[in-house]
Amino acid sequence: MVSSAKIKSVDFYRKIPRDLTEASLSGAGLSIIAALSMMFLFGMELHNYLSISTSTAVIVDRSPDEDYLRIDFNMSFPALSCEFASVDVSDVLGTNRLNITKTVRKYSINKHLQTIGSEFDSRPVTHIVKHDDENDEEYGEGSVTLNEHNFDRISHQHSILVVNFYAPWCYWSNRLKPSWEKAAKIIRERHDPEVDGRIIMGKVDCTEEVDLCRSHHIQGYPSIRIFRKGSDLKDEHGHHEHESYYGDRDTDTLVNTMEQLVAPIALESSKLALEDKSGTTAKKRPAPREAGCRIEGFVRVKKVPGNLVISAHSGAHSFDSSLMNMSHVISSFSFGKKITPRVMSDIKRILPYIGVSHDKLTGKSYLTDPDDRANVTVEHYLQVVKTEVMRASHQLVEEYEYTAHSSLIHAYSVPVVKFHYEPSPMQVLITENPKSFSHFITNVCAIIGGVFTVAGILDSILHNTLRMVKKVELGKNF
């Protein structure tokens, strides 16, 4: 067996008998300072270990060519009807998509931006509206002229009132006028308003009856509305329940549509015509319940400069640009995939300034005076930068930041709201650098050993200096 004396001979930490050691006041002070220094340096090292370090690089965007950029939005337009509100997309490569409805939803809103009713049916009319051939054939006045004074009275005298809201300067109104008057004469002959009383066709000149047209939310000309007796009741918001007609505008189609409307109503019946049971295929939809519209949804676009345009659009209506007001409030507007609040919170923990410009237009309002007929178009210029964050867990988070500059300009045609977006060819890559626990332990040991060694050196220097001073003093005394 190996003797204990031989084992003790390899001891690196040989002990000095306690009787041979001597405590000093200076040594005690240095020991306290050394202990405090160790604690302070340990705290700093622990904080550094727990903190997140990142590296940032700017590189060329690595997105594949077939990758599309998603744009999410939620905007409220207090003075734009859902009937004609259109979301259009175009870009520098020639892409031009009009009235996107597949991924866009519309809701009528009141002046307080509150949603009224269910989702508005915004499906586009899929065919070209048919009109009678243009000729100089004489036609009489078959429809009754309506105004603010006789509208309610006439609408309550007949089961069905079909009204053409028009403007004399409108091309489409003038195209409709001959067939409308001919159809009205035919319907009047077949269903005498004085005897039958089930249906009558009327017209309203919106340049003369501005308030009447505004109360029915007329923004495009001509607008054909169908009012049913008993259903045109005004609620506390003052809105009317009625339908809009979007079908063909030739005489035969109009006459057939009127006949289909009146067919379910028995002659001299006192029953209110609250619903259409004729099974007609005429293109009718509920009319807008309010003058405003909230538009929400998303579109996918190519990663090239382009435009997202919100406007009043129709292939068979005209608009009075002086009456169009494109005021809007942006509830949200962002690029890329939606990021959950939890993921966004984790990203901001890595870099606090990340996510600040992810939805920069949120809560912004761009309102113009309704009485200001200056044809104001609102343009937003957005420069988009892609940011990729690589987490220590190898989770990749894509986030798009953008700058926004907005301006109000005078439009030469119908005013619009236009978002000019320009994706950057460069992207920012942020990588989270993980910390090594072994490195942390090594640094802690280095702190303890280093402080202990430095304190020992200082104590030895101080002790020897004091001894030397005492020796010098004793030598002088002799």
Strand content: 25-35%
Question: What's the rounded overall pLDDT mean?
Answer: 81
CA gyration radius, whole angstroms = 40 Å
Structural class call reads alpha+beta
Report the total helices. Answer: 8
Order of secondary-structure elements: HHEEEEEEEHEHEHEEHEEEEHEEEEH
What is the approximate shape?
rod-shaped
Number of strand segments: 19
Largest sheet: 7 strands, mixed
Q: Give the N-to-C terminal Cα separation.
A: 60 Å
Helix content: 25-40%
Low-confidence runs of at least 5 consecutive residues: 232-240, 269-281
Give a quick set of tags describing it.
478 residues; alpha+beta; seven-stranded mixed beta sheet; six-stranded antiparallel beta sheet; 8 helices; 19 strands; 29% strand
TL;DR?
This protein has 478 residues and is α+β, with helices and mostly antiparallel strands. Helices cover 27% and strands 29% of the residues.
3D structure, described in words:
This protein is an alpha+beta fold and 478 residues long. Helix content is 27%, strand content 29%. The protein is built from eight helices and 19 strands. It has helices at residues 4-8, 25-50, 151-157, 171-190, 210-215, 251-262, 341-350, 437-477, and strands at residues 53-60, 68-77, 85-91, 96-97, 104-109, 115-119, 144-145, 160-166, 199-205, 223-228, 243-245, 284-286, 292-302, 306-312, 328-335, 365-366, 376-390, 396-410, 417-433. The strands form three sheets. Strands 1, 3, 4, 14, 17, 18 and 19 form a seven-stranded mixed beta sheet that branches. A six-stranded antiparallel beta sheet has the order 6-5-13-2-15-16, with no helix packed on it. A hairpin with a 5-residue loop joins strand 17 and strand 18. The radius of gyration is 40 Å and the shape is rod-shaped. It starts with a helix and ends with a helix. The model is unreliable at 232-240 and 269-281 (pLDDT under 50).
